[in-house]
Amino acid sequence: MSKQIIHTQDAPKAVGPYAQAVAVAGAKTVYLSGQIGLEPHSGELVSESFEGQVKQAFANMFAVVQAAGGTKENVVKLTLFLTDLSKFGTVNAIMEDLFPQPYPARSTVGVASLPKGAQFEVEAVVVL
């Protein structure tokens, strides 16, 4: 897969570990459902800690990416859902550790609540 990172000075610079846009030609696209910080075997939240939930949600997402035949480098778009947007910086720091550059495109949405009382959810578009 060949990703082309789209960047223009005519739109705001990314304010975190993400690209303005990513283009991919001639590949299979996989749309991943949202993942929250559930422990895979118990189905319970891994922790009450926001950071713990974020890390587990990404681990769950990467497990689905791998099951689809991809790696983290194949993730081209993320949508993040946070119940507390003041914790946005924590997510950015975790993403910088998890994702290689060039970063995927990303949107972040503040929400009132998530399933099972989760504080964070991530969904992805993967191109293989």
Structure characteristics:
128 residues, alpha+beta, 60s Ribosomal Protein L30, Chain: A, four-stranded mixed sheet, two-stranded antiparallel ribbon, 2 helices, RidA, RutC-like_sf, YjgF/YER057c/UK114, deaminase activity, Reactive intermediate/imine deaminase
Question: If you had to describe this structure to a student in words, what would you say it looks like?
Answer:
The strands form 2 sheets. Strands 3-6-4-5 form a 4-stranded mixed sheet. A two-stranded antiparallel sheet has the order 1-2. The termini are close together. The chain has helices spanning 50-67, 88-98; strands spanning 3-6, 21-24, 29-36, 75-82, 105-110, 120-127. The protein is globular. The mean pLDDT is 91. By secondary structure, it is an alpha+beta fold. It is built from 2 helices and 6 strands, in the order βββαβαββ. GO terms for molecular function: deaminase activity. Pfam families: Ribonuc_L-PSP. Belongs to the RutC family. This is Reactive intermediate/imine deaminase.
- CATH class membership: Alpha Beta
- Find the structural class using helix and strand composition: alpha+beta
Number of helices: 2
Distance between the termini: 6 Å
What CATH architecture label applies?
Answer: 2-Layer Sandwich
Order of helices and strands: EEEHEHEE
Give the SSE map.
Elements: E1 3-6, E2 21-24, E3 29-36, H1 50-67, E4 75-82, H2 88-98, E5 105-110, E6 120-127
Parallel strand pairs: 4-5
Antiparallel strand pairs: 1-2, 3-6, 4-6
Helix pairs in contact: 1-2
